[in-house]
Each structure stands twice: as structure tokens, then as C-alpha cells.
Amino acid sequence: MDEEPNEKGIHQWLDVDEFPEHLKKYWHQRFKIWQDYNKGIWMTEDGWFGVTPEPIANKIAAHLAESAPKDKTIIIDAFAGVGGNSIAFARSERWEQVFAIEKDTKAMKCAKHNAKVYGVDKKIVWVTGDCFDVISRRFSGKTNVIIFASPPWGGTEYSAEDVFDLTKMEPYNLNKLVQSFSMHSKHIVLYLPRTSDLNQIARYAPEGKKLEVTHYCMMGASKALCVYFGDFNFDVDETEEKSPA
Ligand SMILES: C[S@@+](CC[C@H](N)C(=O)[O-])C[C@H]1O[C@@H](n2cnc3c(N)ncnc32)[C@H](O)[C@@H]1O
């Protein structure tokens, strides 16, 4: 795409010499993060730390498409960032509506543009604002909504500990996320650090039930995990779906 960003803080880095030195590792990973990077992806500096790499975003979108109850027709990407997950949800074509909420206006501009690069910008409803506020204003009382949330993990130091303490996640800890979102949907998916404390997560399992936790890997190594709250069905037997010979 020819369109170039014309706002400070939004970049279309196509040349390694222009790329910020402190982010260099992301330059080497750019095609793993965005397969269509050279078609004109826009990024903010912070966007690199949080963006969900395209293969992982696609896998999550596929898992959600397969496992979510059929009567759930709206997916909300509560922390849309530069668009990684929203784009994947729109491309999966599973949802009647994909809502992308993001409070940072520059990240939001990148997300909209990146969705255009992938040909799905018109399939997403874009809302700039605070997700807790937007969700309670627009989705209160709705029963057909799934909330996907890839919150900030509190900076780049999250991987320093062997086990990541979700009570200390900044600026929203696990309890804040679960409490706030569960007021509006029983179907919530949280994208969290791969080292997240599973004992802390298990405390939110309904009595007598388990929560599904899935690790998402690239090149054999886990990059992050998703916790699925609600009635997701991961036991789809593919042989059952085939018609009898
Ligand atoms: C980890 S990033 C999300 C990355 C996204 N999944 C992607 O692929 O680009 C978290 C994002 O949440 C945004 N954010 C933080 N607090 C928010 C809030 N209360 N409402 C909406 N967005 C928020 C940040 O600006 C940041 O862009």
C-alpha cells in the first residue's frame, strides 16, 4: 500500500537504517510478526512489544471459531493495539461483528491501516476509548458476546521471573480483568504471559469445572497462553464431522 503515515509516532519502517536501535530484534522478526509486513504495515514503538504475531493470532482465531458456542456472534477485542488479533478475527469470517477497542489513538490508526493492508478494515467496528467503559456502555445485557483481551503485561520485564505473578500485572491484574469482563460476558479469553501462575488462574474455575489453558508456540517455544473462561468446546472430534462413506 502506498499510503504513508503522516503523524509523529506512527511509522512505516521499510529500511533497517531508520529502525530504532533498541528495537532491532523486532526488525529481524518482522515477517514472523506480520507476513505482509512489506505491504506497508504501520507500527508505533510500543506496538512491537505487545503485538500478537500473525501465526499465533490466526491460531487463536481458529480455536475460537471452532470452540465458541454458535449463538455467540460478536467478538470484542478489548485491547486491540496495532490490530494483530482483530485482523485475525475478521479474516476468520466466523463473526457477525468484530469490535476493536483501543485507547491509544496512534495504535488505533495503525490498527485501522493494518486491517486495510489485510483487506478487512471494513469488517471491523473501531472504537477508540477505554475498554472497561466502552464494554459496559455498549454491551451491557447482551448475551451473544465473547470478550478477547490481550492486556498490557506491565512492560518488558514480565519474563524475568520463572512464574509470573498475575496479581501484580500492571495496570490491570487478573482479578480486575476477570471481575470487570465477567459482568458482561461469561465467555472471556485472556492472552497472558507464558509463565503465568496457573494456580492463580485455577482459582477462577467454576466449582467442579476446569478452565482450558492453551499455550501458543512459534518454532517449538511457547510465546504466550490463553485462558478460556466459559463454555468453549475443545472436544470437537473431526471424524464425527465427516459424512458417512
Ligand atoms: C498488549 S497490547 C495489545 C496488542 C494487540 N493484541 C495487537 O496484536 O496489536 C495492549 C494494548 O492495550 C491498550 N490499552 C491499555 N489499557 C486500555 C484500556 N483501558 N482500554 C483500551 N485499550 C487499552 C494499550 O494502549 C495497548 O495498545
TrEMBL record:
Gene3D superfamilies per record: Vaccinia Virus protein VP39
CDD domains tied to this protein: AdoMet_MTases
Listed Pfam families: Methyltransf_15 (PF09445)
UniProt keyword terms in alphabetical order: Methyltransferase, Transferase
Catalytic activity: a 5'-end (N(2),N(7)-dimethyl 5'-triphosphoguanosine)-ribonucleoside in snRNA + S-adenosyl-L-methionine = a 5'-end (N(2),N(2),N(7)-trimethyl 5'-triphosphoguanosine)-ribonucleoside in snRNA + S-adenosyl-L-homocysteine + H(+); a 5'-end (N(7)-methyl 5'-triphosphoguanosine)-ribonucleoside in snRNA + S-adenosyl-L-methionine = a 5'-end (N(2),N(7)-dimethyl 5'-triphosphoguanosine)-ribonucleoside in snRNA + S-adenosyl-L-homocysteine + H(+); a 5'-end (N(2),N(7)-dimethyl 5'-triphosphoguanosine)-ribonucleoside in snoRNA + S-adenosyl-L-methionine = a 5'-end (N(2),N(2),N(7)-trimethyl 5'-triphosphoguanosine)-ribonucleoside in snoRNA + S-adenosyl-L-homocysteine + H(+); a 5'-end (N(7)-methyl 5'-triphosphoguanosine)-ribonucleoside in snoRNA + S-adenosyl-L-methionine = a 5'-end (N(2),N(7)-dimethyl 5'-triphosphoguanosine)-ribonucleoside in snoRNA + S-adenosyl-L-homocysteine + H(+)
Top-rank lineage group of the source organism: Eukaryota
GO cellular component, one term: nucleus
Single GO MF annotation: RNA cap trimethylguanosine synthase activity
Family note: Belongs to the methyltransferase superfamily. Trimethylguanosine synthase family.
Protein name stated in the entry: Trimethylguanosine synthase
Protein species of origin: Trematosphaeria pertusa
